[in-house]
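HOLO CASE FILE
Compound: magnesium ion
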Amino acid sequence: MANMTMLITEEEIDKRCSDLGMEITKAYEGKSIHVIAVLTGSVFFACELTKYIMRPVTFDFITAASYGNSTESSGEVKVLKDLISDVEGKDILIIEDIIDSGRTLKKLKDMLQERKPNSIKICTMLDKPERRVVDVDVDYVAFKIPDKFVVGYGLDYTDGTMRNLPYIATME
Ligand code: IMP
Ligand code: MG
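Model generated. Tokens follow.
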């Protein structure tokens, strides 16, 4: 059985969402935000964060999969479920659970750019900067974390479980 250690508490996540929400609110003065949450891992964070964004917000969801073994992504990223909405002219905020190699977000950003939105920004709950393989601009990061496998608050263990833990823990 893997060893689980608390990394970020629910209170810390909530406080950070409140601060980031305020920052995003200021950055989008006079604008509406079209949130694109990357399924499945980002939904807990996307719900918490957007409660603190005091601008009109609409939502859409996209599913991407990067191929490789269970804890490490390979080069190839595929879109398994596309958006329902037309994003042309919209101010998109992509919300992701974690940025690791950067391949998923790079692929999604490039793909959405072709659909002519007014702007695209990226917000991630977690960032493992040491792991970056592909360069991608991330506008908002809730927490930078060390290169350890984490679960909870949307993030799953290798078998799809543990997403519903109300905190973030490392697994070793
Ligand atoms: P990237 O394309 O390498 O940046 O991969 C990002 C994706 O890998 C995330 O959306 C997660 O699904 C998954 N991932 C990366 N690190 C972890 C982790 O520590 N725990 C759970 N999932 C992870
Ligand atoms: Mg993911």
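CASE NOTES: Helices lie at 10-27, 43-50, 103-113. The pocket of magnesium ion (ligand 2) is lined by residues 38, 41, 97 (CB under 6 Å).
CLOSED: yes
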